[in-house]
Amino acid sequence: MIRRGWRSDGTTQYFLPVVLVGKSDRVLPWHARFVWKANMWSLVFGFVGNYFWTHYFYKMLGARYMFDTFRLNDVPIPCYLATHVYFLFYHSLSSIILRKVDEATGKLPTALRRAVFVCSVLILAYFTAYMETLTISAFPY
To answer: pTM of the full predicted structure?
Structure first.
């Protein structure tokens, strides 16, 4: 059964911000808005990561992609598109968490505030890497 509603193929990150523009972004041209910059960063970083690093990572693990499709540098093209969606999710979630950390530590001394922020970034990075590794660990290569 096909449900109507939100699209799950990643297109909402392009179209939803065009329709639902925040108050602070309404005065900015589209190319100066944060959502545009975040999308472009995610596209560039995702392409570079997939093209130069992913195939090396999989060779080190002795793994390979199991589905047949067109490939670019031995990485399936759908993986490039999926990476963009995942990176936007990570970026959005980590931005929310780091803003909460920044707000919660606002009255601490500067050095302690920076230390907490750096530790938060390291914890988020380690947690993300661990969860990505955990989710592919049971896959039968």
So the answer is: 0.70
The answer for residues whose C-beta is within 8 angstroms of residue 76's C-beta and 6 or more apart is: 65, 67, 69, 70
Q: Would you say 16 and 35 are in contact if contact means Cβ atoms under 8 Å apart?
A: no
19-71: pLDDT as tens digits: 778 888 888 888 888 888 888 888 898 999 889 888 777 777 777 778 888 99
Which ranges of the chain would DSSP assign to H, the alpha helix?
A: 12-19, 34-48, 55-61, 77-104, 110-137
Instruction: Kindly state the tokens that stand for 126.
Output: 């380690």
Angle at the Cα of 45 from the Cα atoms of 123 and 135, rounded to 5 degrees: 50
Q: What one-character-per-residue DSSP string does 1-35 give?
A: -PPPSS-SSSTHHHHHHHHS--TTTTTS-GGGSHH
